[in-house]
Amino acid sequence: MSEITRVPLQPVAKGSLTKIWLGVIAAVLVGSGVAYATRYKGVEIETVKAGTGASPTKSDVALINYVGRLANGKEFDRGERAVLPLETVIPGFSEGLAKMQKGGKYKVEIPAALAYGAQEQRNPQTGAVEIPANSDLVFEIELLDFKSRAEVEAQMRMMQQLQQQ
Q1: pLDDT tens digits for 43-61?
Q2: Which 8-state DSSP code applies to residue 8?
Q3: 76, 131 in Cβ contact below 8 A?
Q4: Cα separation of 77 and 148, whole Å?
Q5: How many CB atoms lie within 10 A of CB 107?
Q6: How far apart, in whole angstroms, are the C-alpha atoms of residue 134 and residue 113?
Q7: Number of helices and strands (H, E) in the chain?
Q8: Between β-strands 137-148 and 75-85, what pairing exists: parallel, antiparallel or unpaired?
């Protein structure tokens, strides 16, 4: 016959149970915070040269100089005096532009979730993959100017009228 070894349980000290539950709750909150931080990282903006005045909104059209690179430094795109409606670019790009001021130069790091996500981007002429799936992107952007979409459309109508005369 086997013998059972008994271990006497010590009574829980007064207030210890509360401390245990607080510890469990803290561990769960820290764990979920870490999971959230690794799942979603926002756009990071570094000001290289400060601009002045207001910032564009998502309904504006921006005039910029930019260089786009993968996180490893490989350049995939470049533009001089590029005209970009903020509502037509990737979410991280418009989010970054909305925090810039005219005349400023910025370095913007965009996580893949706010760029192209799991979709790779190919060069339309060659078919080569320019931006692999799940790539974080880094842009150097100089915000030259911006106008509301209504202002841009009014200017275009005026130019068309001048050309017709």
Answers
A1: 999 999 999 999 999 999 9
A2: P
A3: yes
A4: 25
A5: 15
A6: 7
A7: 3, 7
A8: unpaired
Cβ atoms of residues 143 and 102 within 8 Å:
yes
In contact, 151 and 85? CB cutoff 8 Å? no
The per-residue pLDDT for 29 is: 57
15 CB-contact burial (10 Å; exposed 0-12 / middle 13-18 / buried 19+): exposed
> Tokens 């078919």 appear where?
127
Task: With cut-offs at 50, 70 and 90, classify the pLDDT of residue 113.
Answer: very high
Eight-state DSSP code of residue 114? G
Please state, in angstroms and as integers, the Cα–Cα distance from residue 141 to each residue in 48, 112, 120, following that order.
Answer: 9, 18, 23
Structure tokens at 52: 């002045």
3-state class (DSSP) for residue 165: coil
Residues 6+ apart with CB under 8 A from 53: 101, 102, 103
